[in-house]
Amino acid sequence: MRIIPNILTLFNLFLGCIITLLLIEGKLPIEDISVLIILTLFFDFMDGWIARKFNLESKLGAQLDSLADLISFGLVPGIIMYKLFMEVSLDPFLPLLGFTITLASAYRLANYNLSHTDLKYFKGLPTPANTLFILSLLLIIGSPNIDSFVKEIILNNNFLIIITALSCYLLNSGFKLINLKFVDFKFKGVNKYRYLIIVLSAVLFVLLRGFISVFVIFGIYYIVSYFAINRKK
Questions:
Q1: What is the pLDDT of residues 142-191, one digit of tens each?
Q2: Sign of CA dihedral 7, 38, 215, 219
Q3: Maximum alpha-carbon separation in the chain
Q4: Which of 95, 167, 212, 222 is deepest in the core (most CB within 10 A)?
Q5: Residue pair 33/24 in contact by the 8 Å Cβ criterion
Q6: The pTM is what?
Q7: 115: Cβ contacts below 8 Å, ≥ 6 apart
Q8: Cα separation, 175 vs 182, whole angstroms
């Protein structure tokens, strides 16, 4: 029983390796790759939930989880940003800036392992959430239903540099964000805010034409977290 969370974590790592190869080869549509990324999120959620629910947490599991996350939610968004820069940059070195997201993710994960963890909040943007944020940019420019004006904004060196810097900062900021790792599913305490974020995110995703809603959803995540945690300082 104790090995089950670690097996799920290894599935996460395995998928992260496959996604890395697929992104480098560029033969599979990003929509299909995004399904695999969603699967890594599922395994990342389930390994922690099972470990907490059945008291199977271990030091090995914590370290293994961070190593898996470094690939699935550190290297992967770095490659995605690299590919976005390659779409527009004439400078052969500028796209390498995308991998600063990988470096910032590694720093965050190492710092997270050394710090005291709290089941109610994260400090800084979690790497899985940051991966969804970066992935949404690639999905937006590949969507036929998005205005060309929006795509032109995204496919701009200055915009990509700003997003890269913002991503690195948010990963390691001191801002407290609600931890979406459920211990149980009762509608009480911090779970009320978790459900609020999930419901609002689902509604906004439907109303705001899919992937472009991600920016608004992240804004909601920060606002709800501020009123739930940060305002209480």
A1: 887 778 888 899 999 999 999 999 999 999 999 999 988 776 778 888 88
A2: negative
A3: 53
A4: 167
A5: no
A6: 0.90
A7: 123
A8: 20
